[in-house]
Input
Amino acid sequence: MELVYPPVVALAKTMFRVLDMKIEIDGAEHIPATGGAVLASNHVSYLDFIFCGLGAQPAKRLVRFMAKDAVFRHKVSGPLMRGMRHIPVDRDAGAASFRTATEALKKGEVVGVFPEATISESFTVKELKSGAVRLARTAKVPLIPMVVWGPHRLWTKGRKKELTKRHVPVIIKIGEAMEMPKGTSPDALTAMLKERLSGLLDAAQRAYPEQPSGPDDRWWLPAHLGGTAPLPPVAAI
Output
């Protein structure tokens, strides 16, 4: 029985209404109504997991996110993360979290992964870790790419959080499950995933209904769209 997750989802939806957030979900039909699946998302903000989870709501699925174990040790977030059955990742003992995630997938859970591992300060898709591909292949479940665009305007790396900012649009785009041909290497599949995520993110960015209000507000756009976010090589240093 889910005692923690549904109330948290209800609270998040209430906050979205209070802040009058303009949330658009495109492609929710690609998330299966039953059975295991890996959701692989881009990473632009500290709030991405909330909106990725929201993207699975039309399919009535609860996503178990893989997150660094420090979050589980926090006195506030720890009980919530454990109650929602998210999966702690110890970067010094990654095999254990991989096994836990694989078992969850085989039991029919949806597992959320951020294959960039950390927030992309360039607001483009960084080089990916291969874990999402390896999880989907090991558990024999679909690998579904998805992106979020907009939550970084509320709280992202290197910027003051503005969690009470109103009327912020958020676009969530979910793509079709990736084909994973037998014999294709994890590295090749990860490159394909990066390409898919980049395409979805580009579409979300170009469909976004707002533009910066002035020169000082251009920080939230990537450089190739006229923003002042650092170029990818600079952000990776």
Observations:
- The mean pLDDT is 95.
- DSSP finds eight helices and seven strands in the chain.
